[in-house]
Amino acid sequence: MLEVALAFGIKPTGSDPDMVDNIEEVLEWIDQQVRLNGPGAKVIAEQEYDIPETGEHGTADVTIVSPSLLHIADYKNGYVLVHASKNPQLLLYLLGAIAKYGERPAYRITVLQPNGNHIDGPIRTYDVTPEDITRIRAEIAASFRDNDFVAGKHCKDTYCPHRGNCPQFLQWAQVNAADAWYPSEVNAITDEQLALALDHAETLQGYRDMLRKEAMRRILHMDRKLPGFKVVKGRMDRDIVDHDAVKQVCLTLGATEQDL
Predict the structure, then answer these.
(1) pLDDT band, very low/low/confident/very high, at 248 (cuts 50, 70, 90)
(2) Which of 21, 55, 81, 178 has the greatest number of C-beta atoms within 10 Å?
(3) What per-residue confidence (pLDDT) applies to 84?
(4) Residues contacting residue 95 through CB under 8 Å, at least 6 positions apart
(5) pLDDT over 60 (residue 5)
(6) What is the C-alpha to C-alpha distance for residues 98 and 249, in angstroms, rounded to an integer?
(7) Which position has the higher pLDDT, 65 or 143?
(8) Which helix (H) or strand (E) segment is 34 a member of?
(9) CA distance 53 to 85
């Protein structure tokens, strides 16, 4: 809807009135940004960028190009808040825009999130500094180094297609399990040790849950056998709720008070 409105200069239309209102709000912001950037500013919708630093490509929802500025904006329709400050996705798009349009005196990235209840409002902008550009390029370069991986709690917070079979994370989990599990009394450990143990235990608990689910999937649905493990049907604990009723039944069946 946003792309069509920008491409043909028409008002957004659709069966969802809330969506139409959201797009109209975004279009007003875009129009304001173009006016602020003066003559020569233009808007490109759904611009695909080749990102030379990564060898990948991405598509920016909105790009505002002027002689003095490159501005990347991304529309988010969800309710889960997306932060604009140093947003990695938008910074990658910005690298692609720099490669396509050339360097500019100033850079900005913006999250357009009409449904996001953020203290800074539904539209949030971050002014990208030269240090931000240098940092993101350095992080990309570091990520391509062979065998230079650092595993830890951040592995569960970021997307990585290899974390399910990552030897570095497995090694990290084994080493830090000692901190996350104290088999003896824990009231003697220091506050610093306790904080570290809690931190590691939280991460490792999620890792254990993932391993357990994968083991159950293989055993139950793939007829696989894991050495030393098997699925056992759980036993439900039973308890007497109404003791008087049970006593009366036993007496009726011939039991005596002494038997009970």
Answers:
(1) confident
(2) 81
(3) 92
(4) 49, 51, 52, 53, 54, 133, 136, 137
(5) yes
(6) 85
(7) 65
(8) helix 17-37
(9) 21
| Cβ atoms < 10 Å from Cβ of 151 | 18
CA 40 to chain centre: 37
Burial of 122 by CB count in 10 Å (0-12 exposed, 13-18 middle, 19+ buried)?
A: middle
Strands 106-112 and 69-75: parallel
Distance CA 36, CA 156 (A): 41
Q: Alpha helix locations (H) across 119-166? A: 130-143
CA-based R_g, the chain, Å: 29
Q: Tell me the per-residue pLDDT of 36-50, one tens digit each, with 9 for 90 and over.
A: 988 889 999 999 999
Q: Using the predicted structure, report yes or no on whether residue 179 has a pLDDT greater than 60.
A: no
Burial of residue 212 (number of CB atoms within 10 Å: 0-12, 13-18, 19+): exposed
Closest CA to 96 of 47, 43, 41: 47
Taking the CA atoms of residue 64, residue 81, residue 124 and residue 5 in that order, the dihedral angle to the nearest 10 degrees is 40
Whole-number Å distance between alpha carbons of 13 and 20: 6
Ranges 17-31, 222-236, 245-259, most confident: 17-31
Nearest to 65 by CA among 97, 28, 113, 92: 97
